[in-house]
User: Fold these one by one.
Assistant:
Number 1:
Amino acid sequence: MSSSPEALARPRFGLLPRIAVAIVLGILLGLVLPEAAARVFTTFNGVFSAFLGFLIPLIIVGLVAPAIGELGRGAGRMLAATAGIAYLSTILCGFFALAVSLLLLPRLLSGSEVGPLENPEDSAIAPFFSLEIPPVLDVMTALVLSFCLGIGLTLVPRGALHESFDQFRTIVVRIIEAVIIPLLPLYIFGMFLGLTMNGQIMTVIGTFFVVVVIVLAMTLIVLLLQYAVAGAAMGRNPLRMLWTMAPAYMTALGTSSSAATIPVTAECAKRNGVPEAIADFVIPLCATIHLAGSTLKITTFAVAIMVVTGMPLSVPVLIGFVLMLGVVMIAAPGVPGGAIMAAAGILSSMLGFGEAAVGLMIASYIAIDSFGTATNVTGDGAIAAVMTRLSRGRIDPLPAAGTHEVHGI
């Protein structure tokens, strides 16, 4: 029985509203729900966490290896230059977030420590049963294997091996889209239910509010810095260039999708004088590999959780985390919450996050997902401007911004 056109056109209840409802219900029901009922959700969270732990190494191999393989083909030097600039932008944003977080968060969150976050399945709310699903690989093994396979894919002609990895990536992305993402609200509901019943929820809420304000302020500073560089590269007013990118920012804010924003981002970049050939190459590529805003958010929330849970803040470890996060972000799938799912492995392996901390990271990331996406795509326009400068003399620039019509924005 096929769906009617009206049913197909009916707006879907998006992931962010579902996450918000899950958090509110988890807090409210945590105050009144009897322990017997809470055990149902504790059991689900234990099974889901075990499945997620099993899946994370497969996510890393399925996303990182083919992504590295693809970066070795195509437009040669221009591809390498764009990828290098995107990675540099991403890790610089991560280091900026790390520096601000280490400077401000220990002071702003002092007195908010809750100790190690308890996993609901480890608390007094015992599950009905537990299920262990050992992963095929540990996370670091998966990362090293992905690098080796990805580099190997760049050295051999495209054939059955490349197609196999492409299909494996499709399987991984479909599991994320069809299983992990739909079940996240229920998992986060169980997390906040447990936090409420364990008496930790008020500190978590206070931490969320403080960190969100800091993240939004940092994204604005990052965009101003990116367009200062872009303006210098193009010889144009950086604030005017940033304003020209406003339609792309607002589109990403509404869709939470870099891919869906590609046409608008490309048109805005062209209005800033980026040649069509460069815009049509750089913007789609950067929509996949340039996740500066996402890196900024993940780094900041990770430090915040480490502060409130009393984990040691080792600067060398955090620097290594940012460098590795920049690589993982290149392979993050373009689905809501895809970046944090790709980062879950190194949060556990490099920073020592437990299941409850990873769940809290997922909730905090998705809560302001659209702002990170908007920062990502707006920064793509700055990279396109820098690539225009690097390609000067080989590609003719477009007329100055505002001298031609741009439709559909």
Note: The domain at 14-390 is CATH 1.10.3860 (Proton glutamate symport protein).
Number 2:
Amino acid sequence: MSPKELVQLAEEFGNPLYVYDAEKIKNQYLRLTDAFAKVESLRINYAVKALSNIAILQLLKQIGSGLDTVSIQEVQLGLHAGFTPDRIIYTPNGVSFEELEEVAELGVQINIDNLSVLEHFGAKHPTVPVCIRINPHVMAGGNANISVGHIDSKFGISIHQMPHILRIVENTGMHINGIHMHTGSDILDIGVFLYAAEILFDAAKNFKELDFLDFGSGFKVPYKKDDIETDIEELGKKLSKRFNAFAKEYGRDLTLAFEPGKFLVSEAGFFLAKVNVVKQTTSTVFAGIDSGFNHLIRPMFYGSQHHIENVSNPKAKERFYTVVGYICETDTFANNRKISEIKEGDILAFRNAGAYCFSMASNYNSRFKPAEVLWIDGKGVLIRQRETFEDLLKNQIPFEVPVALEV
């Protein structure tokens, strides 16, 4: 999308504003399926938590994706968007047993990552097919908060506890139809991923009636010019060959599954915000925007870097700015970043704002959540209205203070 188009969308729909490029999402999906074209049965399950707008789910359904969900609410969103239960996998962590049963009742594939829950579910529902999430104890990911395959992770059943898993399966007679792993996000070294895959292959040999092997995701996307990213094409070439060999050795048709979120939607997203003030102090020039970490928390939460472009003045001389928000706390998006000269009223575009951005937005400081727009066929389509004051009051119950408490 061009700077001019982004400015026009800000003028049409207001700001702050999230914009998603439908064509980019489609191209990322095709890039992944092309990389694994030599696998006969491939399934891509989009990780709903990355961006859960119904319109995005419907778009992904149209191009062939399934869904990866982590809550009953995400399952319900998927069903509402038109996905059939067999196109959804549910991989929760620490949820109630009642929620697990509710999802299973809907006919959705469940993925269990806890020994006690596995035993309880197997004893009560031995005929319901279950996938098991293995922790391979392989460290991957760009930040401790998104590395989930290491030994201290709360996710998955330790690969070293395989004897316990097999004992539970034998005692309950439950049907294990899938094995799953997820090492973490922002994977740089495909060698580490392939090493973890071998652990999953070894684990799979313990089960005779598997339908699929799920390798999670965590593929890194570039956040700035010349940034490192996961080499999907190289991974596709090497893992496809190994998977096909394993499936032949296993003696049963198997599906290769992935659960990408960020890879599919991150680069498709733009966050647009207007500059309220340009403020110079003794050592810094601040560009203060009409937003804050209530709308985009990743830079403060993960230390993530989002390329920021002044789309109102893209060709001007670059100067150094510290871009900050309007929240009554420190909410810095960028420190001393080179950006085309900024004036009050300019529109700044934050790139890579498609994944874990709006989905983490809040009403902190009682601010409204922004609108969302889908850029498709050369025009912007509103897919979420901007919140209003009435939305802040919704679900709140007025309380009449008793006379006895009045001062």
Note: The two ends are 59 Å apart (CA to CA).
Number 3:
Amino acid sequence: MAPTAAEPGAPAPRHAIVGWRWAPAWILTYVALLFAPGYAEGVLTLGALTALVKLALARFNTGARLLSDPAWALTSVLFAAYWLPELVSAIDAVDPGRALREAAVDLRYLPFLWLVAAAVASPRGRRTTFGGLAIILSVWTVDALIQWVAGTSPLFFGIDALKQAISGHGMCSAAETAAADRLSGVLGPCNLKLGQVIASFSPFVLYAAGRRFGSAGWLLAAAAVGVVVVLAGSRASWITYGLVLLLSGWRLLGWKRLLGVFAIGVLTIGVLDRVSPQVHERLARTAHVVSADVEGVDNALSGRTRIWRAAWCMVGEHPVNGVGARGFREAFPACDPQPGRLTSWGEGPALHAHQLLLEVLSETGAFGLLMWLAGAALAWRAWAFADARAREASRPAMLALLVTVFPLNTHLAFYSTFWGGLTLLLAALYAGSLLAQPRSE
């Protein structure tokens, strides 16, 4: 007897949403290569081209489909909310050529996001993608813990040795290695973003541990990831990870046990303050917030108040469409509230606003903020109208995206290649997993 459509191994019914079995490999390779941003961008670009060819061929196929219409629409809309402000900002940007180049190059994200959404269109693809991300982040966490104990990241040591053998020089310069003030892990001392990456992607690890091993597994994973985030991350990543614990832990542990988790976390930070000079320095700097003068607050925030005042100046001078995507550094000298004075971050202008809303407003203006808010509203509407099954399937991606764009925090540059690509990846994982299949009534 031939298998039915519901049986394993049965052919997909006509017009079924099945995704693409090789799509998860592109996503996982892209994330795994973040230690070498150039190679990661190459994988992204090749994935985008492959997605275009695959979707063009699928257009003439009347059988199973790669992506549902709602997932395709939401993914495209979220991309437009990110990309159209770039394009409009180029009209009278401080550096129109660069703004136009940024907009042109970022067009590759659209087919790549379709590829990401197709990767999680089927239950099998979603398990592979989410499980693979959990494994990658778990390996990076263990590697960072080894670096904390032994002083060297095994993964980065191997990568650096391979780079030395191939090109005759390492991944990072001696000056960058000497200047590293936190745990760098697999990303290396010249790309000190391990804390932010692990904090934003930690929902995939915690949900995987919770599903497989229950509350004990969640607690163990939360402790290991938390130590790495504190040692490797900026204080912004501490806030990000605190949100992850809050929003993922209460459903599994309940409020009382979750309060105990946070109490243990505070004690752990106290211990790390004693044994880690870097953690002690960041906590001591944070204590300056209680200072009565502006200089003390600015020092506590690593010069952020000076940058934010400059951002507001740009908003006032370019309220409609901003100074141009990635034009913050060119516009900063004219808006610097303390010109000629030594900055808290070293020499040179500030590179971006270090805050999502101010980055969008200063670089893309009110138009950009309206587009971002429209994208957020549509993402929320999709969640509100989705059924319980779809919400549960997409919960890790939803939480990862939510904490990454949480506005009451400081951020990396969302219009940079590194952080912009990861944020759009999370947006596509959310849209693709939430709207993978038709709503069940």
Note: DSSP finds 18 helices and no strands in the chain.
